[in-house]
Amino acid sequence: MELLKSDFYYDLPEELIAQTPVEPRNASRMMCVNRQTGEITHDHFYNLCRHLKKGDLLVMNDSRVIPARLYGEREDTHTFIEFLLLEQKGDKLWEIICRPGKKAKTGRRFTFGNGRLTAEVVEVKDDGNRIVQFECDGNFFTALEDVGQMPLPPYIKTKLENKERYQTVYSHELGSAAAPTAGLHFTAEMLDELRDMGVNTAFVTLHVGLGTFRPVKENNVLNHKMHSEHYFLPQETADLINKTKSNGGRVIAVGTTTCRTLESVATFYNEIAEHEGYTDIFIYPSYKFKCIDGLITNFHLPESTLIMLVSAFMGYDNTMNAYKVAVQEKYRFFSFGDSMCIL
What we know:
- This protein is of the alpha/beta class.
- It has helices spanning about 140-145, 190-195, 235-245, 255-270, 305-315, 315-330; strands at about 30-35, 40-45, 55-60, 65, 70-75, 80-90, 95-100, 110, 115-125, 130-135, 175, 200-205, 230-235, 250-255, 275-280, 295-300, 340.
- It folds into two domains: about 5-65 and about 160-340, QueA-like; about 70-145, QueA-like (Thrombin, subunit H, Beta Barrel).
- The chain contains six helices and 17 strands.
- It has a nine-stranded mixed sheet with strand order 2-1-17-16-14-3-12-13-15.
- Strand 6 and strand 7 (about 95-100) form a beta hairpin.
- The longest helix has 14 residues, at about 255-270.
């Protein structure tokens, strides 16, 4: 089977790429798509309750974005350096990417925030990433909050005034380099209202890596290698999923990261139970879904692995048509954009 990257291209006017979040969070527009028929209706996210029913289960990714971009200088020459934290490898030990890379040789030391954080390069990896050992007084994440910047996606050029707007209201587990953006539309009050009407909520954790933004370079999609990300599915969530299924309710993933977590566990272990590990699952058309019945997601980049996942879930033709309509109707795209509810 050959699946071409170009099959997932659509023409997106640049002005439709959302640069700032809407206020309030749940005021974004919401395209609702019937995955069986492809029928499209238009609504707002604050009306999500009209599309759900008692006994449904919303599963959300509670990962929290760390301010992973650091601007600093080399200790000896005071020349500029930029670090982007990718993944924690040990106590204050991180894998990073940096620029300019030629400055960051093994043994070189760097300082950030007037010495609030210091770092030494301990390894240069084959792919050019570095392993660095940080030092600071007190808690590392507190220091990072003081001196780090939010690692907004490259297509967002506008400065974010309030850092919390790139976090979901239920974010809890520190570790992501990018937000699980499908959940940005929820307010705490809205979640309470949904629970009051009998819609259950549960959480998984998948720490989103910057590989999320890595373009597909292979023309034949099947040759693309997915990045690996750490996930945790707690037993409490597994129990709620299994109970929902047995009662005839729907399991609705909030975001592609939640979807990939649930489908990874169902695929790797042939069950929904507590599991923790790394996943590089690649979901594209022909994949048979084993857990989710619905998906809440944003509008994704052309030719991205995320639009491929959506195509797998609601059908290729339905997906490309929905994106065509979204452009015509001037929906807002990507991280701070509008929502799509697929049921």
